[in-house]
Amino acid sequence: MRIGRFAVDIFSDGVFKPDGGSMFGVIPKPLWEKVKPADERNRVAMDMNSLLIRDADHVVVVETGAGSKLSVKQREIFGIETPRLLDELKARGVGPAQVTLVVNTHLHFDHSGGNTYRDGEKIVPTFPRASYVFQRLEWEDAMHANERTRGSYLPDDYAPLEAVGKLELIDESVEIIPGVRLDRVQGHTRGTQTVRVSDRGETLFFSSDFMPDRHHLPLPWISAFDLFPLETLAAKRLILRRAIDERWIVGFTHDLPRLGRISESDAKYRFDEVAD
Prior knowledge:
Blueprint: E1 2-3, E2 6-16, H1 20-24, H2 29-32, E3 46-54, E4 59-62, H3 72-78, H4 85-91, E5 101-103, H5 109-112, E6 116-119, E7 122-125, E8 131-135, H6 136-143, H7 160-163, E9 167-170, E10 173-177, E11 180-184, E12 193-199, E13 202-206, H8 229-245, E14 249-251, E15 259-265, E16 268-273
Parallel strand pairs: 4-5, 5-8, 8-9, 13-14
Antiparallel strand pairs: 1-2, 2-3, 3-4, 6-7, 10-11, 11-12, 12-13, 14-15, 15-16
């Protein structure tokens, strides 16, 4: 898809399977299972999506999926198969050394696992020329995870980046390159950030996990993984209104890898896919 001078692709690193009840919070299972059927272990299949953003001077990867470092047990628990990130990039003509920026919306393992890989006894950056960009608050919380959060953070995904000088920590809202903006949206975590790509009157918005798929468009449908659910609610009200009024193209972190527009009718939100 073209957004002005940018070529933007959305693709999946593969599927993971979190607990369905956790994914939909206070929404009763008879409601959420109509749109997202659970398996025999009450897990729901969610894609781990990435964005590839390119112009003449930059190659930006947003989200790196679960990566290749998880143990067999971890993969079995979450139903994760072979990661596809590098193959998907290769299919689009991009090698690891061509990537100039990597953005993680937050540092949970299903978003940052592909930041690094094991090279013998060492853990090294997957993208050797890239700076890795995320919110300072997210870095601090990931590096000092607590009893509530540490199950979602795996330090090998991000801590090794500091030693090799690859970190670019930002605060609040920053235009990382002209036309690509990151905004901190507290809700899922304190340091979650969204991505907006804007050029020549078009805007593409990548939501992050405060609104992980189209089934979370209804305002009360908020994941139990969100640390600040009322902040999520406030962010959804504001961002959905803007997305509709300004006709943003929208992509989700955990939906099928596709882009679309949001509309509202009879107080209900709808997502309609758009062609490339």
